[in-house]
Amino acid sequence: MDEPKRRPGRPKEGTDLRDTILDQAELAFAETGFAGARMRDIAERAGVNQALIRYYFGSKDDLFDEVFRRRGGDLSAKRHQLLDDLLVRNPDPGVAEIIHAYLLPQWEMKYSGPGGAAFVQLQARLHSEAEDHALRLRREVYGSSVHRYIEALSRALPDIPRSTISIRMAFMVGTYMFMLNDLGRLGDMSEGQVTDLGKEPMLLHLVTFLAAGMQAR
User: Is the sign of the CA dihedral 132, 82, 124, 156 positive or negative?
Assistant: First the structure.
């Protein structure tokens, strides 16, 4: 007897397609933004039907949030871990060490493969949005780790008000997000002499620059 045909998009028993859907949604949102990404296209890329996406995630808004929470949560957790490790090695770390620990997970994710690079692009899109929903999502995912790093920087710089540290943290986020997304400004400003610093040199240049700004009097 022939095996009954499985309806399109219906997962086999014991098979979880959530990660496949999230992977393809991540790429779609990064390429076209939230408004440009269509559930139909995401379903086609994932090899499922739209009903299955709605079953797992609900609306497109819910799917986007889950995409962001997945890797954003990993980033935040890694930042907590790196700060914990740093404080074990050195209870009084320097500013550059703290900033390096904060930035490193972003660099590792960007160079981890297409999905990591797509998330960095998606993240930049979200950071350019001022809507309440985007602000709440960023606060939910990153709030605890960001405030821990502000606290660590405040301890390392006791003569600088915490409010000033917070402002400079916002400057830091804007700077590294701009540079992570390869907007071609290096080549433009250096008249073609510098186009790609590479993973480690770029990170070290940024740490040096941002640490100096954080400590400025």
Answer: positive
197: which 2 tokens? 């610093």
Specify whether the CB–CB gap between 168 and 146 falls below 8 A: no
Measured in whole angstroms, the distance separating CA 117 from the mean position of its chain's CA atoms is 9
- Across residues 157-174, what is the average pLDDT? 96
Closest listed residue to residue 123, CA positions, set 23, 5, 30, 20: 30
Taking a C-beta distance cutoff of 8 angstroms, is the pair 69, 44 a contact?
no
What string of DSSP letters covers 121-174? Answer: HHHHHHHT--SHHHHHHHHHHHHHHHHHHHHHHHHH-TTS-HHHHHHHHHHHHH
What pTM, to 2 d.p., does this model score? Answer: 0.84
Q: Could you tell me the end-to-end alpha-carbon distance of the chain, in angstroms, rounded to an integer? A: 80
Angle formed by the axes of helices 18-36 and 39-46, to 10°?
150
Task: For residues 51 and 10, give the distance between their C-alpha atoms in angstroms, rounded to a whole number.
Answer: 9
Q: In this predicted structure, which of 57-66, 85-94, 163-172, 190-199 has the lowest mean pLDDT?
A: 190-199
